[in-house]
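agent> Task received from the user: take the single chain below, predict its 3D structure, and emit structure tokens. No templates, no multimer pairing.
agent> Plan: (1) validate residues, (2) run structure prediction, (3) serialize to tokens, (4) report one or two observations.
agent> Step 1 OK, no nonstandard residues flagged.
tool_call: predict_structure(input=
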Amino acid sequence: MKIGRLVRHLLAPPWTANRAFPAAALTRIEDAIRKSEQRHRGQIRFAVEAALEPGALWRDTSAGERALEVFSSLRVWDTENNNGVLVYLLLADRDVEIVADRGIHARAGAPAWETICREMEADFRAGRFEHGVIDGIAKVSRHLEAHFPGSGTSGNEMPDRPVML
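)
tool_result: status=success, residues=165
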């Protein structure tokens, strides 16, 4: 466990996520997800967490490991076409992770997701949280449109509302 990371997480109480993403921003992000899902058959979830709990910090849990836990707990994997995508932000680390279910990951691949993550992180470092998320959603949507085109014939399988952990 690195001391700098521990301090960042201890100084990032849950309300810091609300400051970065006020209610109006969450509504606009929800709208962006809803509108994007009208153009493809994929499902997108966005989750933000201010900081890790002390136990996770002690175990040196990475943002990627936590994103996998969130992917599972939100059941993003539970879609008809195995095309759910989680965009996860660990605010204290300014780290974005994208976890894609096997149906879309096999087609788009890790380099595509990594590029989107790094671009979002650049926006976050500049304080453009809402812009970074909405732009990231648009880029994830382009991959879903390319590999799962058309409107969601199976309906909206997951809530579009961002999750504040």
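agent> Step 4: summary for the user.
The helical segments are 3-10, 15-20, 23-36, 54-58, 63-73, 102-108, 110-125, 129-147.
agent> Done.
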